[in-house]
Amino acid sequence: MQLKDPNIFEGTVEGYPEVNLIREMLLKNKIKKAYLMPFMSVAGDHAKNDMAGDEDDSWKSILTKAGIECVPVLKGTAEFDNFVDIWVDHLSGPLSRF
Fold first, then answer.
1. Containing H/E element for 84?
2. Each residue of 73-87: pLDDT tens digit?
3. Contact 27, 63 (CB under 8 A)
């Protein structure tokens, strides 16, 4: 799925849109470099293996074979202050009831 920024694409490991569709979208847009970033609070097994691993079926391997340079960013969203600020802000309402 392409987001509002024409150079940001979002895909899933187990669902839609999957890596082959994202690969075709990147090629169609003549994108030569992709930063692979997990949209999870922690960069765990899916990020390390399915996204950034060296196996033939990882996103990194599939995109690299298509001529797209891949830069894995193995940081979960919980490692970015802006995301943490949003979570804490969202918790302030429910926690105020205690």
1. helix 81-95
2. 999 999 999 999 999
3. no
Strand intervals (E) in 1-98: 33-36, 69-72
**Does 14 reside within a domain?**
no
Q: Are the CB atoms for 61 and 54 separated by under 8 Å? A: yes
Whether 52 contacts 60, CB under 8 Å: yes
Q: How many structural domains comprise the chain?
A: 1
Whether residue 15 contacts residue 53, with contact meaning beta carbons closer than 8 Å, is answered with no
Stated length of the chain: 98
What is the CATH number for 52? Answer: 3.40.50.1400
Tokens of 81: 């202050």
User: Does residue 34 fall inside a structural domain?
Assistant: yes
